[in-house]
Amino acid sequence: MRQILGASLGFMCDESFSIQRNIGVVVKKGKITQVGEYQALCREFSDLKHEFFDGCVLLPAFVNAHLHFEFSGNAVSFTYGDFGAWLDSVIANRDVLLGMDTLDKHICDCIDECLRSGVGIVGAVSSYGYDLKMLAQSPLRVVFFNEAIGSNPSAIDTLYRNFCVRLEESQSYASSSFIPAVALHSPYSLHHIFAKRVVEIARGLDSPMSVHFLESIYEREWLENASGYFYKFFTQIFQLPNPKPFYTITNFLEFFSDIKNAIFVHCLQARDKELEFLKQNTFSIVTCPRSNRLLCNDYLDLQNPNLPNVALGTDGKSSNNNLNMLEELRTALFGYKSNDLESLAKKLLLFATSNGAKALDIQSGEIKVGKNADLALFHIPELSSLHNPSQIPLHFILQAKSAHRVYIDGIRVL
Amino acid sequence: MRQILGASLGFMCDESFSIQRNIGVVVKKGKITQVGEYQALCREFSDLKHEFFDGCVLLPAFVNAHLHFEFSGNAVSFTYGDFGAWLDSVIANRDVLLGMDTLDKHICDCIDECLRSGVGIVGAVSSYGYDLKMLAQSPLRVVFFNEAIGSNPSAIDTLYRNFCVRLEESQSYASSSFIPAVALHSPYSLHHIFAKRVVEIARGLDSPMSVHFLESIYEREWLENASGYFYKFFTQIFQLPNPKPFYTITNFLEFFSDIKNAIFVHCLQARDKELEFLKQNTFSIVTCPRSNRLLCNDYLDLQNPNLPNVALGTDGKSSNNNLNMLEELRTALFGYKSNDLESLAKKLLLFATSNGAKALDIQSGEIKVGKNADLALFHIPELSSLHNPSQIPLHFILQAKSAHRVYIDGIRVL
Predict the structure, then answer these.
(1) CATH architecture of A63-360
(2) What is the second-level CATH architecture of the domain A3-61+366-412?
(3) Which residues on B lie below 8 Å from A293 (Cβ)?
(4) In B, which residues are within 8 Å of A55 by CB distance?
(5) Which of A179, A261, B100, B223 is positioned for an S-S bond with A208, CB 3.0–4.6 A?
(6) Share of chain B above pLDDT 70, in %
(7) Domain at B62-360, CATH class
């Protein structure tokens, strides 16, 4: 479908966060083919269907770069305030973790919640494949990370076979809006033989690889000293007599040395050496502020000059109160209390658009010729007449309540 | 009306944050006359109308202890990120400050927003009296702070007369749910002669006095050194040739030495000496986290042992994105990233209930015999079956979306 979409304000989501008034975007075959002033484009392409959204902001659909749809029923299931207490509560309540009888309903609600908050693209980590069909059939553009997890050497073959079956099944749904990929759960939870096999598969795929990395102080302590919470975790819960980490931090990172694109989720405890490795390899971090506060009482230091590309995610409902991307943005604005507000607002919006698309290796996330027409519209008429235009991004985050429209490949999905 | 209200969970909002399951509350003539187990109370008072709210939390209606309804149309009017830039933008846009043609509509929406977020009681600062009638006729219980502001010596008599007219008019509406009171705007904005007269009036009233106090570093710098932002403010904007502060901080506090009850709003820059003065006099601080972050990039240090009673407010829309008390609570939970989550959640809920009532000198804010039946109900069925009951207050803040019912004096107002 060819059309022109227009709006009072356009957030281009380029590096300098340009804002264009009376923006017009020509969409052909799902791509942005021209960007300019709406009326001028309407004159130039007078045969095209065109629609102007007065009082609206047009911007790239948000990218929620890390979440778990399979835990969509678990918003009130677990203990918050300490990563160890949280993981203990997850293990103790494995029976409620999935809640199979209502899982489809919960996943459906969460897909809807994503769309309503302006999200068009997700990096969805799937531990079991239970979310596969719903996500493949959803209007979202999905990078579907089949996750490998398991540390018991005697179970590796079974786990690996199961992983391969899930991956293959997801590949049967592959399309331009459903991209099968693989994820390693984390260095503390994945046997090195299993990890090695999965990484070999990842090398053959064209999609990014995802991993939870250095989320908690306990993980760092375990990998560096084989002690602390995880020592107790493996001895007491998994009854291992003398558990040892499978990797040093450096060893683990070596897995990624010839991976084209990888996203490291959380990284709260990553130090400059690790961050530099990510940056040199043009990998990305996905930061999930609410999840990080609820589990680890901390946020990623956004002022560290060694940060690589940073994207934003909500994580799953098992570590967040909802999947609303607007609330994630607002929480970050207030969570990073000392960061300059205006520049933080722009930075966060880039995390949630162009940086997210870059992390997931998707040609979206910017209003730019050649990009996918993955777009969102928000009706906030006050923004157009703001006395201080440099605060438009800030007031957008403060005021945006729900998306007015979401388009994927130029097709309206909300 | 006599009735029994029951709910699956009751937050008593006593100091130890007791939670009672299957709570029942007997309400007579607007007061709580008995608290116990719902079924037992129904048996004991079998003639009373009774209603049980399954899956609900019953708690005292929230107290929004500081807000400005007159700025209800100004959510997107001003510059955020620095107190000076904000005040400059307020002065530069005085014409939009009130927006008289739509003010009533905005105030009406804001009263509704308060109720929907479970607020039953407000400490409303009124600079002009434009919100008087709407608040007097609203279902909210209101402490109505007629505010004195003005530093120009030649205008004092006029300002004082205007203040007295406003106060008198508000007194004509006085009732148990509408309590006229007075407020000093702040030490930087109020001539000492004007302040002195207002304080004399306050001594004769039975209601608390309110004041914005040490909100910004600029205010402290001005009061201590007669320099900085406010020096520029008075010389450039008010064209005063050699401006001087009207008080030292100590001088200003002396006004309050024989005031029975006073609330000091913000206090971000208050030091231990000032906090101790407040504590010794059993005064209160009202903290407004979102406003504080947006204007001053900081939060009140809740771990300071010298803090007096602390209540919670949203401030007006001129320094917040909305007046939703639940969002204020959630923002604080994430804003204070290092504070222990469980105890912070309880603390914040007490700020918003019993501490707020104490600050405003209202016999509400607790589920306790003798208190006003100012109550709120929230439908969050997952809370009753939480695996870790000590996290009920935390998950309440995370999950509460809007009040199911609000009662003032036992009468349903939402």
Answers:
(1) Alpha-Beta Barrel (3.20)
(2) Roll (2.30)
(3) 333-334, 337
(4) none
(5) A261
(6) 100
(7) alpha beta
